[in-house]
Fold this sequence. Notes:
Largest sheet: 24 strands, antiparallel, barrel
Shape: globular
Helix content: under 10%
Amino acid sequence: MDSLAKEAPGKSGIQLSAISRSSRLRPGPPPKGSMGGAVRVLAALLLASLLFPGPVLPADAAGPVKTARASMETGPGAPAPGAGNAGAGKDTAASRRNAALAAMSREEIYRGVFGKPMPAAPAQKLWMWLVVNGRSRGRILVNVPADPAGASFAAGPVLAALKGAVKPAVMKELEGAAAGGEMSAAGLVAAGLETDLDLSSFRFYVTVPPKLADTGVHSLGGGSVDPFACGAREPDPFSAYLNWSAQQEFDEPSLQAGGSDRGPLGLDLDGAANLKGWVLEGKAYWREGSGRGLSRRDVRLVHDFFHEAIRFSAGDLSFPVSGYASVMNLGGVGLSRDYSLKPHEISYPTSDYSFYLDRPVTAEIWVNGALMQALSLSAGDHDIRNFPSVTGENDVEIRILDAAGRRQTLRFSFIHDSTLLARGKDQFSVNAGLSREISDGDYEYLGDRPGLSAFYRRGLSDRLTLGGFLQALPHQAVAGCEAAAAFSLGTVSAQVAASTLEDYGQGWAGRLSFTGYDQVGGRRLPFRLGMELEYIGRDFARVTETRPANTREFNTLATIAFALPKDFELRLGGGWAVLRDSPASSSFYATGTLSWRYRQYVSTNFSLRYSEDARGKTETSAVLGVSLYFPGHNQSLTTTKAWDGDMETRYDFGDRSSSPGHVRGYVSGRTGGGRDSAKAELSATSNLGLASVSHQISEDRNECGAPTQNQTLVSLQSAFVYVDGNFAVSRPVQGGFVLVKGVGNCEGREISVNPGADGPLARSTFLGPAVLPDLVPYRLAEIKAVPRDAPLTYAPREEAPPLLPTYKSGTALYVGTEVSLFVLGSLTGPDGRPLPNLPVEISFPEHPGIPAERTFTDTKGRFRVAAPGPGPCLVRPLSSDSPYAELSFNIPHHAGDLYRAGGLVLPTAKK
Length: 911
C-alpha cells in the first residue's frame, strides 16, 4: 500500500482514488469524474426496481432476450443464467423484467434510466502490475484513455519483460513498433500477442501464444545460466589487493653459515589492481641477508573479452600449449580463447534435443535407465541440453505425458567426452615476444631470441576435433597437427610433430593413444582400457631443448581397470620401451593394484611393481596402504608399509572448511632408508589471515653420532584489499573478493557473510569490514549479509541480485540504510476526531537527501514512518482539495529506535 502511494505521480484526485481502491481504502467521497457516479446510478436503479412493481424501463429497452444477451458484458458479480428468487421458473412479469435487466449492458441500463448516453470515462494514468504469461514482472505506468483498447505505456519495461519470452523476430517487430519509447496495447495485439487490461485489479495481462514463444531452454547439467544476462551485479570500477606471506625457519643444530638457529626471513608478495576490467598483476619476493632488495617475478597486464571467451595479456606471458609444444618463457603479448570466461557455455560435446509441443505436458528425462529430472513444459518450442552423463555412450529417453493421459517417448543416444570440442567450438592461443631468462635473480629479456607459440583446435563435429600447433625460436622450431575422434568404445587421439634444430637437422615424433569409455550403449562396462604408442626420432627436439636427448625410440603403455564385486577394483598396467644409446636395448615395467573401499570409512590398496631399467637392473616393490576415516569427527588415519621395510603413518584432524575460526593439523612419522623422522603441523584460519607452525624431528641412523635435527617453520599469510574507498585486512585473495561493510543503522555492528553450519565464511571485526576472498571469476556468487543484533529499523533486502566477479576483481556491498528510527503517531482534525485513510506526505527538512514518504493513515488515523534521525518532521495532506493544512513536529535526540509522537492535530486549511 505504501509503495503504491509513494510512486503515484502528481496529486490528481483520480489517481489517489485509483490507488485507494486497489488498497481497499476509502479516503472520502470520490472526486468528480471517478467511478463513484456509476456506482450511485446502479444503486439507484436497483432501489427503483424494488420499490416500483411496474416496469421502470421503456418498452424498447427490454427488447428480445436473445438480442440483449448477445451484447451482455459478463464479469465478476454478474448473475448466473437462471438465477433469481424463489419463484424463478415461473413466467411472471417480475422474472421477465429481472431477466431483461440481467441481459443488458451497463451502457444500456444508463440510457434506460437517464434517457441519454452514458458519459465516457475520463483518461487517466494508473500504476498497474504487468503480468506476462501468468508471471508478475513489476509495475508500469499505463495511460488509460476513454477506450481502454488504446492504452499506452513506456516501451522499455514491457520489452524487457518480453525478452526471452517471444521469438527474436517478434521481439524485433515490437522494438520497431516502439517509436519514441512508447507502446500501445494495440501494438502488442498487432504483433500477435494477447492483452487484457483489468482495471478492477490494476493488472495488465500479456499472453504469448505458443507459436510466438521463444524456444524454452532447459539445462539438466547446470551451468547454463548466462551470468551476463541475469541482472547480476558486476564488480566496482576499481579494486586492488596485495597478498603477503612471511616464513621464518629455526634449525637446531644450525644449518646457517653464521651458526644462528634462525634462518633468513622470507616475504612473498602477490597483488593485482583492476581498473574497469584491465588487470595489472605481479609477484615479488624478498629474502633476508640476500644483499638484494625486493625482487620481482612475473608482471603482466590482463584483459578479458568475456563475451567472446578471449583473454588478452601483455608482459610476462602464461599461456596453454598443445601437442608436442612446450611451456616457453616469453615477454610479449598473447591472445587465447579460454572457455572458463564463459562457464555457462560448455565447450565439450553434450547433447541438445529440440521439439515442439502443441499443449502443456510433463516430461520425464531418463538417462541410462535412471530418472534425472521431471519438467513441466508449456506449449511451444523447447530445447533440452546438458544431459547428465558419464564418459562414453549414453542413452536418453524423454517420456511425455499430457493432461489427457496421452503418452509419447522420444529416444536418442550421444557420446560424452570432455577432451573433445563441441561442433563449431574452437580453441586457440597465439603468443609472441622475447625469450626470458633469470640471471642473478633478475629478469633478462633476450632481444636476439624472439619467440612464437601458437595452436588452434576446432570441433568439426561432436565426434571429431582437429588442430595444429607451432613454436619457433631463432634456429629451431617445432610444428605439428593433432586429431581426436570418438567411437562407441572410446576416443582415439593422434599427434604428429616435426622439428628442426641448428646443427642437428630435422626430426619427427608421433603418438597414438586410445582411451576406453566407462560404458557403451548406455550400459556400464566391467573394465576400462587405455593404450598408447609413441615414436620419437633421434634428432627430434622441442623448442626448450638445446640438443636432442631421445634415449627412447618407442614407448608403449597400457592400463586396464576392472570393477569387481564387493566394491573391489583391480588395476593392471605395463609399459615397454625400445632404447637407443643405452646399455640395455629395452626397458619395461608391470604394475598391479588391488583396492577396496567400505563406504566413507575404510579404504585399502595393495600394489606390486616389477621393472627393468636402461642399465638392465631389475627391481621389485610392494606397498600396502590402509586409511581410516572418521567424517563425523573430521579425522583420518593413514598407514603405508613398503616391502623393503619403509613405513609411514599420518593422522589428520580438524575441519577443512574455509570458514574462519577453524583449526586443523596433522602428525606424521616415517621410518626407513636408515633415517627416522616425525613431523607435526598446526594451522588456524581467521578473518584476518592464516597462521601455521610446523616442527620436524629427524635422525640419521646410518651415521654414528649424528645429532638429532630439529626444524621449525612459522608462516603467516594475509592480504590488504581496497575497493570503493574502503580498506580492509583479510585472508589471501584467490580469484576475486567482496567487501561487506555496515553503514547507516548498521554502522559499527558485526556483519556475518554467508552464515552456515560451519559458521560464516567471513565476519567483520573491530579492524574493518568483512571480506570474502575466494570468489570464482565468472561464476555467480550469492551473498547474504546478516548484522548482529540488528536494529529495529533494519530491513534486509529481499532477492538481492547475485554478484558476477571477473578476473581478480573486487566488489563493495553495504548493509544498512540511513533510517535510524521509526516514528508512530496519529492524526486528528481540530475537532479531535481521528482522520482515517488520509493520504499524506511526510518529509524531513534537515535531511534533503532522504525522499519524502507517501502513505495513508489507517482506520483510526494512525501512521508509521521511517525517519533518518532527530530533527523536524513535516506532515502534509496529499489531496489538493483537503480541508487540512500541514503541520510540523520535532523528533528529539533521545528517541532511540522508536519514537511515539502521539496525537497530532492537523490545522484547518486557510481558504
